[in-house]
Specification:
Elements (H helix, E strand, L loop, with lengths): L11 H10 L2 E8 L2 E8 L1 E4 L3 E8 L4 H7 L2 E13 L11 E16 L2 H16 L18 E16 L6 H12 L4 H13 L2
Antiparallel strand pairs: 1-2, 1-5, 3-4, 4-7, 5-6, 6-7
InterPro entries: Split_barrel_FMN-bd (IPR012349), TR_PAI2-type (IPR007396)
Protein name: FMN-binding negative transcriptional regulator
Pfam family, one: FMN_bind_2
């Protein structure tokens, strides 16, 4: 992605925290020169090698793209908000503040039923939580034949936190205050991030 230096996040601990916090991402492949994307939940694997894992419906042709070309892109997006130039003390134009992470890596396709079961049950446990009404995995094993798993070995991470770092301290405060006064969750989320990163 286009990544001016003042918007680039380098802290790997923060980037991995971001991926886990925004784990419903976009898997992008290219098939015969045509981009293809699926929106899916990922699991971040932080062992000796950083990896992302997930699964696709077998009816989704993207798993065949993975099998044919091992290079993939996974994208994760966090808080984002419109920024009005009326909030600046000086001149400006409308823009958008946002946070995003791109993950590039090599993928392998997995059909193993035990692997698939473990990942599906981990995802379920993560999002069901520990409430008394949480769904406990109970399904015919044959249903696993309807999905295909994958693991992405992470080769590079790009993180863009575009939070008005290129504006003056006064402009940053004005943008932060305007966003914090909004009723929108995204806007307030961007304001909170700006408070961490302001000059």
């Amino acid at each position: 992605m286009y990544l001016p230096k003042h918007f680039e996040e380098h802290d790997q601990t923060e980037i991995l925290r971001f991926i886990e916090a925004h784990a419903f991402g976009t898997l992008v492949t290219v098939d015969a020169g045509v981009p293809f994307a699926s929106h899916i939940p990922f699991l971040l694997e932080q062992g000796e090698t950083l990896m992302l894992s997930g699964h696709l419906a077998k009816a989704n042709p993207q798993w065949q793209h993975l099998a044919a070309n091992s290079q993939v892109l996974a994208m994760f997006q966090g808080a984002h908000a419109y920024v009005s130039p009326t909030w600046y003390e000086g001149a400006g134009v409308p823009t958008w503040n946002y946070t995003a992470v791109h993950v590039y890596g090599k993928v392998r396709v997995i059909h193993d039923a035990d692997w698939l079961r473990e990942k599906v049950e981990r995802l379920s446990a993560q999002y069901e939580g520990s409430s008394e009404t949480a769904w406990l995995p109970s399904y015919p094993a044959k249903m696993l034949e309807a999905i295909v798993g994958f693991e992405i070995t992470i080769e590079s991470l790009q993180a863009k936190y575009k939070l008005s770092q290129n504006r003056s301290a006064a402009d940053q405060r004005n943008v932060m205050q305007a966003l914090d006064a909004s009723e929108g969750e995204n806007e307030r989320g961007v304001a909170a991030l700006m408070a961490k990163y302001q000059k």
